[in-house]
Amino acid sequence: MPLDVIRIPALSDNYAFLIRCSQTGRTAVIDTPEAAPILAGAREAGWRIDEIWNTHHHADHVQGNAEIADLEGAPITAPDSEADQIGAVTRRVRPGDRISLGACEAQVLDVGGHTKGHIAYWFDQEKALFCGDSLFALGCGRMFEGTPEQMQAGLARLRALPDDVVVWCAHEYTASNAKFALSVDADNPQLRAYADEVLDRRGRSEPTVPTTMGREKAANPFLRWDDPAIRAHLNMEDADDVAVFAELRRRKDGF
Ligand code: ZN
Ligand code: FE
Fold it and tell me: Around 235, how many Cα atoms within 13 Å sit in the side-chain half-sphere?
């Protein structure tokens, strides 16, 4: 079933997403950085917000929950292991669960690492992924709570998705991510073309989200731990995948 998506910019660089099953009209918001722009976006589209779905417990993803839940009567779906931190959660979901939005169905994926219990919502039929702060266009989330093993495993799960999956990530970080990506993978022609396009778009204040899984597999260093050129750049030709990922993440932290 087609899934309609409206991207809502919020705070300084967050995105929330209003998503709607076009057959039934059932609507959810993915993360709630702030209530006002989300409510305004829904009103402008003529959509009610039937449900709130959270990806992880950070304030810039949940702090609009209470106001939207109150005004719209929307129940809150969130990762089981972070539900107590989020509060007022009505449905706790775990990796492997399938949940529906009208006639559309999403699978809950474990993408822990940025936070331990971080989840993504993957609509396999509709080819849409809502991945919060786990994967970004040309980057990935900071590893606040998890281990490199956990985070690389989660990103490997995303990398296994088809190339035509549309990736709706929760921040506009792409321009700075592109600079780092070029610092470790300068000769990648697909990255260079992508980075040029990002600078162009940002120069016109246009969003760079969504991206696609195919583009990210070709250009995002945090999905390319087995790429020979990146490994050579790091002098880690024979290291294991987790070690390469950990080194990339460590370098990005100091970039
Ligand atoms: Zn976060
Ligand atoms: Fe965030």
Answer: 0
